[in-house]
Amino acid sequence: MPILENLVIIWIGVLIAHFLAKMTRLTPVLFYLFMGALFVNLGLLPEQPNEFIRGFAEIGIILIMFSLGFEESTANFVAGIKRSWGIAFFGGLAPFITAYTVSYYIWHDFNMSLVIGLAMTATAVSLTLVSLKSEGLSKSKAATGIMTSAVLDDIASLALVAIIIPVATGGASIELSGIGLVMAKAIGFFAVVAILSNWVLPTEPKGPLHFVPGLGRFGAAHVLSLTRGQRTLVILIFVMLVAIGSHVLGLHPAVGAYMAGLILREEYFSDAPATVAGSDDLDAPEDFNSVKRMVDNVAFVWIGPVFFIVLGAKIIFDWSLFVSVVPYVAVLTLALITAQILSASLAARYTGGFNFHESLMIGFGMLGRAELAFVVIDIAYVQNSILTEAAFYTLMITAFFLNLAVPVSIKLWKPYFVRHMS
Predict the structure, then answer these.
(1) Half-sphere exposure of 181 toward its Cβ, with a 13 Å CA cutoff?
(2) Where would I find the H helices in 135-280?
(3) Are the beta carbons of 166 and 250 closer than 8 angstroms?
(4) Of 309, 319, 322, 421, which residue is most buried, by most CB within 10 angstroms?
């Protein structure tokens, strides 16, 4: 049964990747991609995955994006916006313009350059958090600035995915009317999400819906109180419905999944007692932490990584192609490192009020490119053939070096940072 054989091989690659990530303190995403490329070039995985594996991978990235949104505290996020908006704006705008300019100079393709700029905009939140934790800096003010601005970056990038991808794929014309229609759909989707977050999901409906009789009976807390041991299932159904809604409007399902995670709050689980370890009561209420652990396990351990293994399997080793993209990788990587550090650091210093050492740490922490970048690459290369093979390889290798720069730069800057902050 080749389907099951492929899945077992992929899971073996995931396990090996986790061990390598722990040994090197790098993000597992890098090693997922590496294992996918290794397996396909050794002939252990087919160059074209079957329909089941492709569907499994799509579910994986939806769950990953939901988990990333689910772990973000909405209150902390809103509180940090005032200080971090400049870092997110300038720290996202600079790499977008840089990647677009460099790629357009190399390939002279407007649509491809737009997608490359988009892929190089979103910051790797998980990679930076792991790197800061490993150095004992996760509770610093600089870490808070990085996390908040990185999340803002990702939300802005999701909005850009909703607008740019349909234009780049030809789903919308480049004329003002076509772009306006795409923007209207994106704004409409985010408006629906805002209504869900503020007026429907809370136990006490607010705003115009406050006077609708009996609406509070359908709030998230009330529904979850009725489902007891099936809360994770209810949450996943909600996520998939929002993801389907975003897809119906022409957006990628990952956009809906992330927003679904962001608007689900811990307070909705407040009536559930803490889960007792080892309990065999399958109908016991699931609290927020138990649901989050289960979602994280599914998203980051056994379903989500399949997406990255499958994407890595697109890298078919071709020595002449690798050699041909080396100059492109060198130029794009150096340009992005320079633009990202300068823009994020200056924004942190002059719009966020951080000191010099904190500002540079924020600049280093914004270098990574992970989940969302690879979602964009997958949409552009695998699903829609916007990227050429050379551009795909250039982006993948560039993302690798940018991710590698995060733990290295944070570790090197830590002695100066700690000495000044102590």
Answers:
(1) 11
(2) 141-168, 176-195, 220-227, 231-248, 253-263
(3) yes
(4) 309
- Joined together, the tokens standing for residue 315 give 């890298």
Q: Rounded CA gap, 390 and 388, in Å?
A: 5
Q: Is the distance from CB of 375 to CB of 367 less than 8 angstroms?
A: no
- CA–CA dist 196, 74 (Å, integer): 14
- Cα gap 68→129, rounded to integer Å: 12
**Which domains are seen in the chain, by residue range?**
73-301+319-421 (1.20.1530.20)
Q: Do residues 119 and 373 lie in contact, with contact meaning Cβ atoms separated by under 8 Å?
A: yes
207: left (phi over 0), alpha (psi -120 to 50) or beta: left
Distance between CA atoms of residues 241 and 62, nearest Å: 11
What's the rounded Cα separation, in Å, for the pair 224 and 257? 19
Q: How far is CA 30 from CA 8, 123, 130, 335, in A?
A: 20, 15, 14, 21
Residues 316 and 40: beta-carbon distance below 8 Å: yes
Rounded CA separation 232/264 (Å): 12
CB-facing half-sphere around the CA of 294: CA atoms within 13 A: 15
Instruction: Provide DSSP, 198-232.
Output: IIISSSS--GGGGGSTTGGGGSHHHHHHHHGGGHH
Which range is least confidently modeled, 42-56, 219-233, 369-383? 219-233
Angle, vertex CA 25, rays to CA 20 and CA 27, nearest 5: 75
Distance, in Å, from the CA atom of 232 to the CA atom of 229, rounded to the nearest integer, reads 8
Give me the chain's average pLDDT, please: 79
Mind listing the pLDDT tens digit for each residue in 218-235? 667 667 766 666 788 888
301 neighbors 17 (Cβ within 8 angstroms): no
Q: pLDDT tens, 239-285?
A: 999 889 887 876 678 778 878 887 887 777 766 554 444 444 555 55
Where does residue 219 fall: left (phi above 0), alpha (psi -120 to 50 degrees), or beta otherwise?
beta
Measure Cα distances from 40 to 1, 56, 317, 365 in Å.
18, 18, 9, 32
Q: What does the pLDDT read at residue 280?
A: 47
Question: How many residues does this entry show for the chain?
Answer: 422
Per the CB < 8 A criterion, the answer to whether 169 and 218 are in contact is: no
Tokens of 388: 């050429």
Q: Which residue has the higher pLDDT, 328 or 89?
A: 328
Q: Which residue matches tokens 């994280």? A: 296
d(CA 259, CA 261) in angstroms, rounded, equals 5
